[in-house]
Amino acid sequence: MNALPELARSEAKVRTSASHEGEVITVRLAGEAAMDAMATMESVLASLHEKAQALGVASVAIDLTQLEFMNSSCFKAFVSWIDRVQQMDAQKQYRIRFVSNPAILWQRRSLHALQCFAAELISIDR
After folding, report:
1. For 87, which of 52, 53, 64, 116 is 20 to 30 Å away at the CA?
2. Distance CA 3, CA 71 (A)
3. What is the pLDDT of residues 38-63, one digit of tens each?
């Protein structure tokens, strides 16, 4: 497993880290993604998209098990990222798997909405 330090951030109340193993990039989010974390989320997701394309991975896993809160602005950054993946040629698209914490209510509701937005790309592990 190779760490991806360019995707690691510890700003505001949110922390990110990432690793790459085989055909999968895994990004872990922890803390709170409140309004002051919006720029961080946008930056991490843009870097993630570039890295996923450069490495030609088959999937990206987003581990939210330690993310207690995400506001709508940060959530919108995920919608924009998923839209960028959808706009890619089908053969170059990578799948997105969210690893959620079922004890955190916002994740159940919000991740379901994301999955409806791009059912062909997104899966959710509970």
Report:
1. 64
2. 27
3. 999 999 999 999 999 999 999 999 99
What integer pLDDT is reported at residue 17 of this predicted model? Answer: 95
Give the pLDDT confidence score for residue 1 in this predicted structure.
79
Q: In Å, how far are 73, 86, 87 from 7, measured between CA atoms?
A: 19, 21, 22
Look at the block and give the residue holding tokens 């505001």: 12
Question: Which positions ≥6 away from 14 have C-beta within 8 Å?
Answer: 29, 30, 31, 32, 33, 34, 37, 40, 41, 67
Question: 77: which 2 tokens?
Answer: 């950054």
What amino acid is encoded at 74 in this protein?
C
**Displacement of CA 16 from its chain's centroid (Å):** 10
The helix (run of H) or strand (run of E) holding residue 45 is helix 38-55
DSSP collapsed to 3 states, 13-36:
CEEEEEEEECCEEEEEEEEEECHH
